[in-house]
Design brief:
Length: 294
């Protein structure tokens, strides 16, 4: 992902600009096709604040994050940052569809909503994706398709909200320390889990909350259980899917291979998690998002 940027009107003459934030992990093909303007979060590592996706690449962040004992924090973009982006885009577009990480997990939605009110809520629609990472990415893909199809701002918002309801994210945590610090798992429970090599599965539900949705003995079994949850959600219906990982390519490929033979979907892209997501899930994490298609 890149820093928030201005774009000229695309060849398709789309009248609506698409905006997201840097918690959104997009496959390269989707990024190139819909080119959303990305408003970056900020991450603080070792007492230094960085702009997510701008000040360093993923590999560099992973290394520094590891060296810092996986201790970092993130903060949402300011209202002013969103206002600047919206005002710039509205000079070239009729309206803006702005799709962001779950309001249950990040203050980014609040910043975007306040900025939209300042700029003009009739021209900027802010939609809660109810997810993070590739979950946001799949919702963004649905929004981009609606924009390219020439839908109105209201129609784009409705299609995006429906896509959010039909999307789920399931994650398997390799290291529990970050989850403990983030309050997802209690420290006593994490200690017991580590002793018996129990790996939790995190489920992002329809209301946008993240919960522990089971566990398995060992990380490979946790990955298989996570894939099973994705399969059951898809219900054998046409869907799209994407997998995100944090320095865990082989594990991501394991999940990809299983889902490729069981989901009614096309290619399942693998994506590296950005800094903001890594900060809250830790190294080694793998997650899959599935979106049922209408």
């Amino acid at each position: 992902m890149s820093e928030s940027k201005s774009r000229s009107r695309p060849d398709s003459d789309a009248r609506i600009a698409l905006v997201t934030d840097s918690t959104c992990d997009l496959p390269a093909k989707v990024q190139d096709l819909y080119d959303p303007t990305v408003v970056p979060l900020h991450v603080t590592l070792g007492g230094v604040e960085y702009v997510d996706g701008v000040d360093m690449d993923n590999a560099t962040y992973y290394q520094r994050f590891r060296e810092a004992g996986q201790m970092a924090t993130s903060s949402q973009p300011s209202v002013g940052e969103f206002v600047t982006v919206y005002e710039s885009l509205l000079k070239r577009y009729d309206a803006v569809a702005s799709v962001h990480a779950s309001a249950r997990l990040s203050g980014t939605m609040e910043s975007a909503t306040l900025a939209a009110q300042k700029v003009g809520a009739d021209r900027v629609r802010v939609v809660d994706s109810r997810h993070v990472s590739v979950g946001v990415g799949l919702v963004i893909q649905a929004a981009g398709e609606a924009i390219r199809a020439g839908k109105s701002l209201q129609e784009v918002a409705q299609i995006t909200e429906t896509a959010a309801k039909n999307t789920r994210v399931y994650g398997a945590l390799f290291d529990l320390e970050v989850a403990v610090r983030g309050g997802r798992i209690s420290e006593p429970a994490a200690r017991v889990a580590e002793l018996v090599k129990l790996k939790p599965i995190i489920v992002f539900s329809e209301d946008g909350a993240a919960r522990v949705g089971g566990a398995a003995m060992g990380f490979t079994r946790a990955l298989a259980a996570m894939a099973g949850k994705a399969e059951r959600f898809a219900q054998g219906k046409p869907c799209r899917a994407a997998i995100v990982h944090v320095q865990s390519l082989e594990s991501a490929q394991f999940v990809q291979k299983r889902l490729a033979s069981s989901l009614d979907t096309g290619d399942i892209p693998l994506v590296e998690a950005g800094a903001a997501i890594t900060t809250h899930v830790g190294l080694g994490t793998v997650a899959v998002s599935v979106q049922r298609l209408q």
